[in-house]
Amino acid sequence: MAPSTATIALASTTALAGVLYTYTPLGDHFEARFLLPIPLIVLLLSFTRFKSTLKAAWLFCYNCFLRPLGLHSDQQSRLDSFYTGQADVYDTTRNGLLRGRRTLLRLSVAHLKVLRAHAENQNKRLVWVDIGGGTGWNIEHMAQYVDLSMFDAIYLIDLCEPLLNVARKRFEKNGWTNVHCLLQDASGFVLPEWKQLRIEPQGSVSFITLSYSLSMIPSYFTLLDRIEHVLDPDDGLLGVVDFYTAAKESSEHEKAIGGGGKKVGWFSRWFWQIWFDFDHVSLSPGRRDYLEYRFGTIKSYNGRNKFIVPFIVRMENSPYYIWLGTPRTRSTERNRHAFEVEGGNTVGNLSAPGTPLAPTRPTTPLSLIGKEAGEDEMEVEELSLGLSRAVSVDEMHAVLGERKEGEKEGRKNIVLDVMPPLSSFHYQIMHPWRLPYYEAKIHKAFRTFVYSFTWEDPDEDMRHLQLSKEDSMFVITSAGDNALHYAIAAGPKRIHCVDMNPCQGHLMELKLAAIQSLEFGDFFKLFGDGKHPEFRQLLDCNISPYLSSHAYTFWRINSKAYHSSFYRRGYSGWALRLAKWVFSFAGVSDFVDQMCECETVEEQDKIWREQIRPVILNKTFVDLVLSNPVFCWNALGVPMNQRAMFLNEGTAFEFVRDTLDPIAKTAVLKHGAYHFLLCLLGHYTADSCPNYLTREGFSTLKANDGALMDAFRLHTDSITNVLKGLVPGSITRAVIMDHLDWFDPGSEDARDEILAMYRALAPGGMVFWRSAARLPWYCEMFKDQGFELQPLGVRAGPEKAIDRVNMYASFWRAVKV
């Protein structure tokens, strides 16, 4: 690659020099002569760079593949021997292989800032220990994201003298006086300040990182136990990035702890384990398993390296993980109260019955377990209350990924009482918006979000909801636009947002976290313009501390969603992309733009009827779109049962006509009728957008450290399950959109849901819904359960809309009598 790069640089510069020479005045020979050497200079620099790269590649290949390994009695001598000849080119040759390091640093800084800002003791020393930091690459690059003077002390601990020499030169060059290199065995590291400043080691360290070093340290049990001992029990942060392999998919609870997607194919697993074994790098799952047992997980991301080694192998299947955690001694009481008491959700909490709010912590490291049941009539000390079962030593070592040499199989069972950590939701450091959930089969049906925006008109809702600060709401999450509108308009004390699609919850989480962490300009770029060139940077450096691990992973994988038009992504994005293509093909794109700039409904209606309506409202096009069940679901979010409901009352053409014809003469798109403005333009404008995208609405939600947003609890479950978990009579208002249209007519599941709704509602509580039918079949079920019904709006034809969206044929209210 280097020669071709040099060639391109040379050709480009030569061409540039030629252009400059052409435009030089004819008599100015001095200026022309001055430009002539430029190609020669670039050639020399390119050759020097190529020579340097070639030298680095040779040193890497020789030391890693050709140099005799030799015999070494200990880890230190083996490391010194291996890195002596390549220490100076280590960073150059590992940059593409060791992925995720920058991400780890960005995430760590973001979480550290939030932890420090909310710490009870603002005067605590801030100490960072980088274990196995080698050449000091991590510390130098951390300076790109934060002023290193914020740390009272930074310690780089490594057992390899050649790499530490590189680090010392690097730190001296930068003039960092608070950075110290220590040649020590990481499993027993000792900080000089403990003796010099008479500091008690336990809980004295704020931040520890392990960057591709955990897999290289043989005594990892001892190391992780020591880290847990010295890390601040309340606000300590541990960051790890490393290689890994996994033979099988995680259990439900393991996914809730460390995320899914761990499983590695057999060939990649076999190849990388053998490859790294040559360098004494262990990819067995025991290290990560013990890490996730010993600490509470805050963030966990499983990635694949896409680095390419020319002519050798494409390493896209090289798995790595990025992990942030905290000591399990850190209190989870606030989050558990939010989940279990306020949300009726105990997923991810495996503590013993009778102690629902007791903070969990390990009491004995697995490295100290060794007695058999019955041996010397002693029982193994309990690790914690909770999950009890008998496990054999064989099973234990299978879990930890290794067996001591010479150990026999088939030994007696030992009785353990092992309490796994709570889910990653419990250890998230800020607002407990998202309630824990286990991945279910139905979640796999949702590859992404169905709705990137909410179709229902919240202004029409507010006319009938009669909301106050004392209300507790139950709403369908969708894209979260209307739920945010209710919070701004009335500030109800609780808003339960429910959606079976985890991706809708991820989108709602992103909006809440972005409001909390961003300024209005960046926020509007994301959700108003629908694109932001620096989204990935914002995600890692600003938004991540406020997201659950699951939501962060989703947006990390889908970070390109904001490269162009966010609203043309997701299932609903198909419809917007189709509309854009149809308008362009029909040659009416300019009229679409003109319609969005109209100041009156009369102007709008004229353009609609004369230019746009003939393109959209023709029978052939409507039949082609709505006669396709796959398109109805994937692009419009209309399931088969709902489609059947409006077809039972008329034709598809009549439904679309009655929906669209009144819109242009109902409200001006440019000034508030933002639903169809978004569909036509692919983005909102400052004058026509949901309330949360106005500067006033944004400021209202952000005020008092996001106090209004504390009302939100995001559930990833069925409506019935969530309702059954809530305290009877705790809900005063429920907005379930068009959800009941999705059931089969006469469904007992629908009846059970309405019964659960009746149970959860307080006397006088109200349920609101919309339907594609003018008279939905389930209205009778509400009456049978003791509700009093009232239609709030029913479409009577193409002349008048029931609200600014007019997407549904009817709008209903049911009151619990």
TrEMBL record:
GO terms for biological process: methylation. InterPro entries: DUF3419 (IPR021829), SAM-dependent_MTases_sf (IPR029063). It holds the Pfam family Methyltransf_23. CDD domains: AdoMet_MTases. GO terms for molecular function: methyltransferase activity. The keyword Transferase applies. Keywords: Methyltransferase, Transferase. This is S-adenosyl-L-methionine-dependent methyltransferase.
